[in-house]
Design brief:
With about 170 residues, the chain is an alpha+beta fold. The protein has 2 domains: about 1-60, NADH-quinone oxidoreductase subunit E (Arc Repressor Mutant, subunit A, Orthogonal Bundle); about 70-165, Glutaredoxin (3-Layer(aba) Sandwich), CATH 3.40.30. The protein is built from 8 helices and 4 strands; from the N terminus they run H-H-H-H-E-H-H-E-E-E-H-H. Strand 3 and strand 4 (about 130-135) form a beta hairpin. The longest helix is centred in the first third of the chain and has 12 residues, at about 20-30. The radius of gyration is 19 Å and the shape is elongated.
Length: about 170
């Protein structure tokens, strides 16, 4: 970790203003902010460790535990909630055996419950990594997650409803 941190530090100015981009780069490399990485960032930026922790805990983008290879975000915004987002979330939880904020034991998935993903017209919606799945139904969860378990990416078929909408 020390060697990698040195490489990351070499790309930043040794100033307090570099703290957020520095933490972003550390998280990009390791997937989360380990305590020893935050302490090293404090020394590098010449600030107190408590200041680094304060900044890191203020921003929701920073994570403090290892995350899975695939990040599953299930929208629970108003449109998604009304259209059955809670059932989709329950099915994902059941399939993965974790609750929002947790990572599966095999580190393949991290589940997140989000307030809105900005795809209200596709409600209920779910995002895996950067792939958006609209008009979700609990029955589709297995197919989608299995694709990622096998190292795949987005399933091209969104839904019959969205395909029909495109043809109109």
């Amino acid at each position: 970790m020390k060697k990698t941190l040195k490489e990351i530090f070499s790309q930043h100015y040794r100033k307090r203003d570099a703290l957020i981009p520095l933490l972003q780069d550390i998280q990009e490399e390791f997937g989360y902010l380990a305590p020893e990485a935050m302490d090293a960032a404090a020394r590098f930026c010449r600030v107190a460790p408590v200041e680094v922790y304060g900044v890191a805990t203020f921003f929701a983008q920073f994570k403090f535990s290892p995350r899975g290879k695939n990040i599953v975000m299930v929208c629970q915004g108003t449109a998604c909630h009304v259209m059955g987002g809670a059932r989709v979330l329950e099915e994902v939880q059941s399939q993965l055996g974790v609750v929002p904020g947790q990572t599966t034991k095999d580190s393949v998935f991290t589940l997140e419950r989000v307030a809105c993903i900005g795809a209200c017209a596709l409600a209920p919606a779910m995002v895996v990594n950067k792939d958006t799945y609209g008009r979700m139904r609990a029955e589709r969860v297995t197919e989608i997650l299995d694709g990622y378990r096998q190292g795949g990416t987005k399933i091209e078929k969104i839904t019959e409803r969205s395909n029909a909408a495109r043809s109109n």
